[in-house]
Structures are given as C-alpha cells and as structure tokens.
Design goal:
Layout (H helix, E strand, L loop, with lengths): L1 E3 L14 E4 L2 E7 L14 H18 L7 E8 L5 H9 L8 E6 L9 E8 L9
Parallel strand pairs: 4-5
Antiparallel strand pairs: 1-2, 2-3, 3-6, 4-6
Helix pairs in contact: 1-2
Length: about 130
C-alpha cells in the first residue's frame, strides 16, 4: 500500500490519508469543500462546495497518476437531499460516459459543517503500463 498526498486538496483533518493506492486501485477519502491553502470552507453555496470537492478529488487522482475518467465508484454524502439536483448537474460536468457507479445518501452532519462530501475508488494503470 502507498499513501497519496497532494497540496491540491485540503490536508486530512484526522488520522487518515487523502488516498491509498493498493495494487491497481486507488481509494480516495471523502473530499469536503475546503480551500487547500487555508483549510477553510470555500462557500456556503452548495454549487461552489460541490465544485471544490470534485476539484480536490481530481487533484488527488492526478497526484496518483490517474484522472476522473478512471473512477469506477463514488459516494456522495449530502446533508440535504433537496440539494441533489444542483449537485447532480455539477457532478455530471466532471464525468464523461460511462459515468462511474454512484451512491448518494443524506446524512445528518458532515465534518466542518459542510453540505457535501465525495469519495471515490479508481482503477489505475497496471504496472506493465497497460490499462487495467
């Protein structure tokens, strides 16, 4: 296993890694909408929060030598499912077809009182240089 870290996403706020690579899989921890430079919430707006979470996710994938087109599964956590349509429309702009499998759930609370958190699993290139 290899730990993946980047300044392109906010530092972990607990005892966990931004991502862990295990063989040809990358497990990205839930990304919340914190400014990577300050560690502060980017905005109260759900749209801006969604963009930041996905930008952080993308930065971590890039640090691992991957990209959003290699994501096979995401989980979206929302504190209010009434925000689903906004989050869904923004999410759709980050992933090309076929979009990854996804679960979306409403939770009572998220760290730092944010409104959205997104985690992911991605397939990485196999060591021979070919696609997995």
């Amino acid at each position: 296993m290899k730990r993946i870290e980047t300044d392109g996403a906010a530092a972990a706020i607990g005892p966990y890694s931004q991502a862990i690579r295990c063989d040809n899989l990358l497990f990205v921890s839930g990304q919340i909408p914190l400014d990577p430079a300050t560690g502060e919430l980017v905005s109260e707006d759900i749209g801006e929060q969604t963009h930041r979470a996905l930008q952080s996710l993308s930065a971590i994938l890039k640090a691992a030598g991957s990209s959003l087109d290699r994501v096979v599964k995401t989980t979206v956590f929302l504190t209010d499912l009434d925000d689903f349509h906004v989050v869904n429309s923004i999410y759709a702009t980050y992933f090309d077809a076929p979009a990854p499998a996804r679960s979306t759930v409403q939770v009572s609370r998220l760290p730092k009182a944010v409104s959205v958190e997104i985690d992911a699993i991605a397939v990485l290139a196999v060591s021979s240089g070919g696609r997995a």
